[in-house]
Amino acid sequence: LGETLEARQAKAATQREKGLLMSLEILYGNTAESEGLLKEERDDLYMEYMAQLHEQYPEDHEITAFYGLSILGSAHEGRDYAVYMKAAAELFDVWNENPEHPGAAHYLIHSFDDPVHAPLGLPMAKVYSEIAPAAAHAQHMTSHIFLALGMWDGVINANIVARDVQTTRQMELNEEITVCGHYTWWLQYGYLQAGEVVDATKVLTTCTERIEAEPSSGEKWHFAIMRGHQIIDTENWEKAQEWTSDFEAGTRGAMNYYFTSALANIKTGNIEAAQKDLDQLVKTPESVERDIQVDQIQSLLMIEEGNTKEALELLNQTVAAESELPVDFGPPVIIKPSYELLGDVMMELENYEQALEAYQNQLERTPNRMRSAAGKEQAMAMISK
Questions:
Q1: CA 48 to CA 329: how far, in whole Å?
Q2: pLDDT tens across 12-24, in order?
Q3: What is the pLDDT of residue 329?
C-alpha cells in the first residue's frame, strides 16, 4: 500500500476506506498520537477513533462490528461485564439485521462466553460454524459458548472440526501439523469432562510425541497444561512419571508442569519430590495464578505435616484470591481450581457440608465440570447417610 502513512492514505479511494485504514495506523502505533505508546494505550485510542467512525457511519455493519471489537479490546484487566455488554449492545445492531455476519457472530460469542451470559450466545454459536466453514477459528469459537455452559459434546465436536480444518489447510501449505495447540487443548479437555478418557489420552499422547522432538514454546505450554488436566481430572497420579519433559523455571508452561508434578507427588506420598517441584514452581515468573498454585501446594504440604488449621487458612486464601479473578473463557488455567481443591480436602476431613458448598461454588464458575460434579454427589451422599 505504501511506505508511509500519507502514501497509504493516498491509495484509499473513499473517505470510508481512509477512515478504516487510519484506525489501523492508530492501533499499530503509526500516528504521531499513538507512536511509542503501550498496547493498552493504543487500544484505548483505537476505540475512541472507532467510536467517531461509527458515529460518522452509523449504518455501516463493518464499522459497527469493528467498533464492538474495539470495545472488547479495552477490557485490559480481563473480563469486565459492563464493557462486554456495551460491546454486545453495538454488535446486536448488526446481528439483528444480518444474522449471517461473521464479525457480529464472532464478537458476540466473545461478549457472552461466561457461565452467566452464555445462553445469550447460543444462537451465534449454533450458526457461526456454518457462516465460515473453511475458517478453523470460526469452528473453534462456537465451543466458547458450549464450554461456558458445560455442553461437552458441543466442545468436542467443534474442536474436532476446527482441528481437521486447520490440518487440511496446513497440508495444503505443506506446513507442520499442529498437534499441541489451542484446538487440541480444548478438545482434550472436552473429552475429559465427558468422561471419554481414552480419546483424551490419545490427544495428549500425540502431543507428547511432538514435544519429544523440537517443540516451540507454545507447544510446550500446551503440553504442560494438557498434561495437568489429564492427570488431575483423572486422578491418575502415577502418569506424572510417564508424561515428562524438561522445563526451565522461566519458560512457558513451567508453572503448570511443576504444579502438576508437585500435586501428583503429594498424592502418591513422595513428599520430598513434591517439595523439589514446589521449589521449581516458586522460581517461575510471578503472577496471581502462580501465587495461587504455590499456596495450594504449600497448604497440602502443611496438612501432610499435621498443620491442618494453618493449611485451611492458607487454602481459603487461595479460594478468595481465585474467586476475585475473572472467569476463564476456556479450560481452567489454574488446573486444579481452588474451590474444588477445598472440597476435596474437606471430604478427606469428613466436613461434608463444607465440601458440598465448595463444590457448588466451583460449579458456578465451571458448569458441569466433571470432578466438581462428582465431588458434589459424593458430599451429598455422605450428608444423607
A1: 26
A2: 999 999 999 999 9
A3: 86
d(CA 94, CA 69): 12
CB 231 within 8 A of CB 239: yes
Whether residue 274 contacts residue 266, with contact meaning beta carbons closer than 8 Å, is answered with: yes
CA dihedral 155, 145, 233, 212 (to 10 degrees): 60
How far apart CA 111 and CA 46 sit, in angstroms, is: 18
DSSP letter (8 states) at residue 239: G
Cα(130)–Cα(128) distance, rounded to whole angstroms? 5
Please, which residues have CB within 8 angstroms of residue 353's CB and are 6 or more apart in sequence?
Answer: 379, 383
Low-confidence ranges of the chain (pLDDT < 70): none
The Cα-based distances of 233 to 61, 194, 207 in angstroms read: 43, 11, 18
- C-alpha grid cell, residue 232: 488431575
| Residue showing cell 464492538 | 68
CA of residue 304 relative to chain centroid, distance: 32
Cα separation, 22 vs 66, in Å, equals 13
